[in-house]
Structures are given as structure tokens and as C-alpha cells.
Write a structure and sequence with these properties.
0% of the residues lie in helices and 39% in strands. It is built from no helices and ten strands. An eight-stranded antiparallel sheet has the order 1-4-5-10-6-7-8-9, with no helix packed on it.
Length: 134
């Protein structure tokens, strides 16, 4: 069985790719005049990776979706994370049972990965948002 990988962009943060960050709800009606005064932005180079594959499709993450990653969130049971295991990146849900960590896909066609002390393993970041590919 072939493991589906996550493509991690190695972006340069020398130049910023700022987009407006609106911290309020957006209505579907007429635009708010307050939006003319948006002064916050977010640099997507620092937070976004592109997902490839279908191992997390039942969690609503599809091939080509962009994922916003937070490296500051503490990994915990049930979180979806980008993990680095034995030289490869993968996107899976973390499952912790006693002293065992599992990387669980959201697609029955893939098997969970048991992380052992022999693995070169790192939780690279926790998924906080998905930007859908159309």
C-alpha cells in the first residue's frame, strides 16, 4: 500500500504575501462600509501548505486543499496534524492510547500508522483551517 504524502512548500519569507485579515463575520448581503478600513493582514507564506492525496477525505480534506498550520498548538488526541515520519511528511489525525501514538487516516482504504521509538518522528504542526480547492 502506498502512503499518500503532503506537499510542503518551502516558501521564502523574504517577501511577504499579505492578504487582508478580517476578524469579524462576513454577511452575504451588502458589504459593510467598515471593510474599507481593514488594517490587519496575514502572511500566508508562514502558515499554508498544500495537501495531496485522499487519505483524509472523510475529514473533509481533499486533494489540492490548502491547509493553514499552527506550529504553536500543543499536539493532542484527536487533532489533525502534519507529521514527519521516517523522512516523509504525512497528514493524519493523532490518536493517543496510553504510551502509544497512532497516525489515523480518515479513509478506510488506508491503515493507521503506529509510531514507535524506532521511528524518526516529529509533529510538524496542527491543522487549524482548510481552504478548499475548486
Amino acid at each position: 500500500m502506498t502512503e499518500i504524502k503532503v506537499e510542503v512548500f518551502s516558501s521564502s519569507t523574504d517577501s511577504e504575501q499579505d492578504i487582508p485579515l478580517i476578524s469579524s463575520n462576513i454577511q452575504a448581503g451588502f458589504p459593510s462600509p467598515a471593510l474599507d478600513f481593514v488594517d490587519l493582514s496575514i502572511d500566508l507564506n508562514r502558515y499554508v501548505v498544500k495537501h495531496q492525496g485522499d487519505s483524509m477525505r472523510d475529514a473533509g480534506i481533499g486533494d489540492g486543499d490548502l491547509l493553514v498550520i499552527d506550529k504553536g498548538i500543543e499536539p493532542s488526541d484527536g487533532k489533525i496534524a502534519i507529521c514527519f515520519i521516517d523522512g516523509e511528511f504525512t497528514l493524519k489525525r493523532i490518536k493517543i492510547e496510553k504510551d502509544i501514538c497512532w497516525l489515523v487516516p480518515a479513509n478506510e482504504n488506508y491503515k493507521p500508522i503506529k509510531v514507535s521509538p524506532e521511528n524518526n518522528f516529529l509533529i510538524w504542526g496542527i491543522v487549524t483551517f482548510t481552504i478548499k480547492a475548486f
